[in-house]
Design a protein that fits this description.
Shape: globular
Number of helices: 11
Distance between the termini: 35 Å
Strand content: 15-25%
Radius of gyration: 30 Å
Number of domains: 3
Length: about 575
């Protein structure tokens, strides 16, 4: 995630040693996130005191519990604390050991800095499998390249789309040996050849902002490869205190033979169809049952269900009562009919994944999903429920990409049973801020930049009171019902506090229903409900909480599958 950040302190503040501490030049202190470790060499007899504090990060207040521990060389805890980010804490321990102790920082999303007295040798752990996780630029930090090393690797990752980094690796003479920048969406191992006579020395690594337009530096994971000792130190003279000339040896193949393949002796469970089990699973106490059967629930957001010959047989080995799939639906709520299937809300947003299906391809997709759902039912799954988002709509209205491209071709799909095209452009379906700007489902500069995971498209929040969005969302659900699905999982069922004219009018009607004119004068200082705006935040929140929109989903299923006709007539639950 791209974050503007303020300094957050975890201060390992005072190492009290006999005599006055000598003044030293500042050392680089990287900003950390999530779980990180520092190795500290404190002399026996010293008193190690750690002060911990944290503050907000940019435009978001992270409230993750901050957990810190000081660990002795034997792994026992010398001191520990778990506090809220805005609560200061002090740790203190007498150093009754020889060797390296560790400072553990588990900060979640909260940004932290660990400050150790500058005269005290310390290093950041950054090994393979447990990288150093930082935010923003830092360096140089120093590491040891063992003697006789001809090549080593450094692993780098900036895993959010449109986030990247620039790096520079210098040899013991300060010469840049490797330098580059990129987005590093996946962990990338940078292979670095060691020049002659530069092994057995102290090298350095620096992370900086990329110069390439459209890339931003934020979260970065760094690990030193298996050829190196997994420590980065702020001062070059400390490297020898933490590093050893150990090198990884190639793994030898196992001499154990693989067990012979065996055939199953019991047939896979294929499910049972029985009226008594139906009653037990219904949880309907009016039918004479005093106990109910447990419901097995599997959530599977995989991307390779349709057309995968192994999928249904795998499910059949232990079929759940309820199988919660990802976006295995004909119509993707955010993009329309696209190539991608499965995944959660924002799983797909770039490249060939969002290529629009033709009407013929969509018809083939519907037939394939209908067969897959039927096969899952035959395998013993009682309920198949794919994922639907109740709010997000993706694309760019200016370039007419994403959902807007589908909207411009809406009528091409009418022959498949799609409802008439809403008259209002999807731009009118969006939630609005108080100043009229469309709401985004992520914070970034709009319209100059795009949602990071989508690269060249936006991720908007649609308004439930827009007839266009309600029509479209009903079609998404109705087409899922046509495929034989038993329900849908509806995500993001809340509002961004929309200020569009539709919502303002509904809010005024809500107040008129619940307050008299005299109360309006007392509580809101107005003589007419038409003069009330969204400044009444308490009632605004209550208005949204009780404004459930589930009835449309029931109606859509009733239109697509007669099994849902009875449930569609029930009153919507707005508790």
């Amino acid at each position: 995630m791209r974050t503007a950040y303020l300094t957050i302190l975890i201060v390992c503040s005072c190492l009290v040693i006999r005599g006055e501490a000598a003044e030293t030049s500042p050392i680089p202190v990287p900003i950390l996130r999530h779980g990180n470790y520092l190795a500290i060499r404190a002399p026996r007899g010293a008193n190690l005191r750690c002060e911990v504090a944290s503050v907000a990060a940019g435009n978001r207040v992270y409230r993750d519990l901050l957990k810190v521990r000081l660990l002795r060389p034997d792994g026992n805890v010398a001191a520990s604390a778990g506090v809220q980010p805005d609560e200061p804490v002090r740790l203190s321990a007498d150093v009754e050991w020889d060797g390296v102790c560790a400072f553990e920082s588990l900060s979640g999303s909260t940004l932290v800095q660990v400050r150790v007295p500058e005269e005290t040798p310390h290093a950041y752990w950054c090994g393979v499998g447990h990288p150093l996780i930082t935010v923003g630029p830092w360096g140089p930090l120093y590491f040891h390249v063992p003697a006789s090393t001809h090549e080593f690797t450094i692993g780098l990752r900036a895993d959010v789309t449109r986030e990247g980094l620039a790096y520079a690796v210098r040899d013991p003479q300060g010469k840049i040996v490797a330098q580059d920048e990129g987005d590093f969406d996946e962990r990338t191992g940078i292979a670095i050849a060691v020049p002659k006579n530069q092994d057995g020395g102290t090298w350095s690594l620096e992370i900086s902002r990329p110069a390439r337009k459209g890339l931003y530096l934020d979260d970065v994971s760094v690990d030193l490869g298996p050829q190196l000792s997994p420590f980065l130190t702020p001062r070059p003279e400390w490297v020898a205190l933490f590093a050893t000339d150990t090198r990884s040896e190639p793994k030898t193949s196992s001499t154990r033979s693989r067990p012979a393949d065996t055939q199953p002796t019991v047939e896979p469970f294929r499910g049972v169809s029985d009226a008594r089990i139906d009653r037990a699973l219904s949880r309907d106490m009016d039918k004479g049952w005093t106990t109910t059967l447990p419901v097995t629930y599997i959530l599977d957001y995989g991307r390779d269900h349709l057309g995968n010959a192994d999928y249904v047989p795998t499910v059949a080995t232990a079929p759940p009562a309820l199988l919660h799939l990802g976006k295995d639906v004909p119509l993707n709520h955010g993009w329309g009919p696209i190539k991608a299937l499965g995944g959660e809300n924002q799983a797909y947003g770039t490249d060939e994944h969002i290529v629009r299906l033709s009407p013929a391809q969509l018809e083939e997709r519907i037939a394939g999903l209908r067969q897959m759902v039927a096969d899952l039912h035959a395998a013993g799954v009682r309920w198949v429920t794919p994922y639907v988002c109740a709010m997000t709509l993706d694309g760019d209205p200016e370039r007419r990409t994403g959902f807007w491209e589908f909207y411009d071709h809406w009528d091409d799909y009418r022959a498949l049973g799609l409802a008439p095209k809403p008259a209002a452009d999807p731009l009118d379906w969006l939630q609005r801020s108080a100043d009229g700007r469309p709401y985004l489902y992520y914070r970034y500069p709009y319209p100059d930049e795009y949602y990071p995971a989508f690269k060249t498209n936006h991720r908007f929040a649609a308004c439930w009171r827009s007839e266009g969005w309600r029509t479209w969302l009903s079609e998404v659900v109705r087409f899922a019902a046509k495929c034989g699905c038993d329900g849908v999982f509806v995500d993001n069922g809340r509002s961004q506090r929309c200020h569009c004219p539709r919502c303002l009018q509904a809010f005024q009607a809500y107040l008129q229903e619940h307050y008299s004119l005299a109360q309006a004068k007392t509580h809101f200082g107005v003589d007419s409900f038409a003069d009330v705006n969204f400044s009444a935040w308490f009632n605004f929140a209550r208005f949204w909480v009780t404004g459930a929109d589930s009835e449309r989903c029931r109606e859509a299923f009733a239109a697509g599958d007669e099994r849902w006709a009875r449930s569609a007539t029930r009153e919507p639950d707005v508790s």
